[in-house]
Sequence to fold (158 residues):
Amino acid sequence: MIIAKVLLTSTIEKLGHVGEVVEVAEGYARNYLYPRGLAMEPTAHNVGKFAKERAAHEAELQKREEKAKALRNQLADQTFVFVRKAHGDQRLYGSVRMEEIAAQIAACCGETIEPSRIRSQSPIDTLGPHTVTVTLYKDITADVRVRVDEEAPQQKEA
Fold:
């Protein structure tokens, strides 16, 4: 396999970020990266041209990481409560969905979290406390407490 060094003009997951010089297979560079404008030859001029973009990109990544850590600290103190109807054996008529948890996080913290970033060991379909894991950024996660309380039965009018 022939190896080629390329300068990335876009961030490519599992390969590198803007402005990085990486080694890839020559065929991958020639047939995929170059035609799509994702990479170029790493000449001194090109490296200098993308140095500013790389610095800006790294600053943005640092900002995202700091924001995720702040959100993790904010979520550590929270317990999100949901009120649901339940059967006699503590099972809910309908489970608490990840979209609902994401909506409560958005209402509480002002940050939008994609429901796909929220993971639970099992469906939240019983009353009581539960824990879900929210992936905030790369390897930054937060364990969020969720409590499901039973809805008070409605009194029939006499």
Remarks:
- Residues 44-76 form the longest helix (33 residues).
- The radius of gyration is 24 Å.
- The longest strand covers residues 140-150.
